Amino acid sequence: MWGGAITRLQLQQTISRLRKLDELPEGPRENLAVPEGDQTRRLSISREKEIASNLAFLSATTDESLKVMAVCVEEHYNSEGITIRIASNTGDLSAVIQEFMTLAKILEQAARRENSKAEDIETLFRQVVVLDLYRILSRLRSRHRKTWKTAGRPALITQLHEAINDKSVKARSGLTKSSLEAGRDRARALHALFTKLESMSDLHAETGEAHEVVGEIIKQAHEFPLVTLGAALQSSMLEPTSKQYLPEAIGKLARYYSATFELVCAARDRTCRVFQNVQVEPFQIQMPASLQKSPWKVHAEIQLLFFYEFHPRYQRPRFICSSKSACYLCNLFFFLHGGFHVPRTHGRLYDKWTLPDWLDVPVERHGELSRIATRLKATLDDKVRRASKSQKQYHFPNESVLLPLAHWPSSSLSRNLSAQASTSTVQRRPPFVQEGDLSASLCTEMPLTPPRTPLEPPHAGNSDTETRVALGEAALTDVQMTPTREGATDIFTAGSAAKDSKITGYPSEKTSQMALPNRPTLFVVWH
Ligand SMILES: [Zn+2]
Q1: Residues 220-246: pLDDT tens digits?
Q2: Which one of 110, 247, 248, 262 is least enclosed by Cβ atoms within 10 Å?
Q3: How far is the CA of 450 from the centre of ligand 1 (A)?
Q4: pLDDT tens, residue by residue, 450-461
Q5: Contacts of 527 (CB under 8 A, 6+ apart)
Q6: Plot region of 505 (φ>0 → left; ψ -120 to 50 → alpha; else → beta)
Q7: How far, in Å, from the CA of 52 to the mean position of ligand 1?
Q8: Centre of ligand 1 from the C-alpha of residue 467, in Å
Q9: Ligand 1 center to 86 CA (angstroms)
């Protein structure tokens, strides 16, 4: 591949071998962000991640489990605009692109601050409901959206209503009578709205009202006290699966509103005017004729990564987010590549995963890409060797995107990460705990090389701009050990990257040399 020693067929064979031995090479993992370090960007790291993650969540308009969308937010060099770039691992993107363009116009309007914030939120929220109506109906398990996924399962709101009113749910310490009553009132209101939705004979004939009722359900879900629900369910005799499913499902409904709110806040931010111009562009890597009928797929996240390999002069985003957590191979490839972050992985291996080595990327990048492919295969070979000696029990993780991280001010994020990076060499677990039910997951701050754009921008905003890539301090972490599950330990070693280094002018080889000789090597040890 790319002129190196590894062929695509060899890589695929290794992947197939590993799949036979170990379908779940890693546990679910959260990859925490590196601190901010690039003065040329207007978007902070945390804001970029938040926007891309929200857009990726909204881009999942269907419940086709095999369809995964990836989204990134590319800041323009003049700092006065962004491009929302979208890829999908399968299927047609045109409908989503069309709806995202409307969404982009609303965000541009919000950036102009012509209306009140409440009005902007309401306008965007209406568009979100239009965009995601079928996905929301499916999440609700509404009779209007019967799919194989929802068939035979009770409706979400009905389950919620019954659960919180279950005889076994009682006020106790940690759940006052008044908070339980307030939760029951909310559940009753939601149930009334849902009954109204289900009583509609044809949503297509009553589109306006359907959007209104669904929007109201989302808002009520957003207001629903999840802490009360959690406490009520814990005290009940209900099935453990309900106890886990209900708060997650209500949280996902609520996210349509919180994502809207956060996007409007980002767009209206006076200190970061990048939403004045919002472009939406699809990207799809076509399979070559020889692979048209093959089962191989270029995953959506990999497609976006290769967009920037194919177009090295575009400013690279720092995050590539997707509508589901990244698979094991995508996560590993991003880790070895080091140019972008994916927020999390579910750790599962898909053996039809492939790399688009047929794409005509600039020849200057071939050397590095072939080295990455070699390291990828070596890591997988090592996994094969170890997996062939061990026997594993599988507990397959939920692949859907987990609830977003708790929000913290970007300054405190930087401060905390800097403190960790400067003091720790061995870390059991970072101090951040994410929202949602992540009891089965573990946080790992991966010592990634910070994202970088390899070539000089063609139209930098200031002609004398010295474009810089500052190496993030997280890359300075020397060794991290994170137990992924009983009996397994992942050891990441990262060489020390030069503190405060700046790379100017983007000669691609120089960038590579600066960033790559000490690339982290991944070893996974099974005991
Ligand atoms: Zn993947």
Answers
A1: 999 999 999 999 898 888 888 888 899
A2: 248
A3: 21
A4: 445 554 443 333
A5: 487, 488, 489
A6: left
A7: 17
A8: 31
A9: 15
DSSP letter for 292, please.
T
Q: How far is the CA of 53 from the centre of ligand 1 (A)?
A: 16
Q: Which residue has the tokens 């890409």?
A: 369
DSSP characters for 454-520?
Answer: -S--TT-SSTT-----PPPGGGG--EEEEEEETTEEEEEE-PPPPTT----S--HHHHHHHHSTT--
**Do residues 452 and 514 make contact, with C-beta atoms less than 8 angstroms apart?**
no
| Distance from Cα 180 to the centre of ligand 1, integer Å | 42
Exposed e or buried b per residue across 431-453, where buried means at least 16 C-beta atoms within 10 angstroms of its C-beta = ebebebbbeebbbbbbbbbbbbb
Q: Kindly give the distance from the C-alpha atom of residue 447 to the centroid of ligand 1, in angstroms, as a whole number.
A: 20
Statement: residue 505 has pLDDT above 50: no
Q: Are 198 and 155 in contact, with CB atoms under 8 Å apart? A: yes
Radius of gyration of the chain (CA): 24
Distance CA 165, CA 398 (A): 28
Question: CA 354, 360, 364 angle in degrees (round to 5)?
Answer: 105
| Residue 195 CA, ligand 1 centroid: distance in Å | 39
Contacts of 89 (CB under 8 A, 6+ apart): 66, 67, 68, 70, 297, 298, 299, 300, 303
Q: Is the pLDDT of residue 189 over 70?
A: yes
Expressed in angstroms and rounded, the spacing between residue 89 Cα and the centre of ligand 1 is 9
pLDDT given at position 152: 74
Structure tokens at 497: 């990257």
Helix residue spans in 350-483 (DSSP H): 366-387, 410-423
pTM for this prediction? 0.76
pLDDT, residue 389, reads 86
Cα(361) to ligand 1 centroid in Å equals 21
Q: What are phi and psi of 74, to 5 degrees?
A: -105, 120
Q: Which tokens hold the place of 283?
A: 């990207």
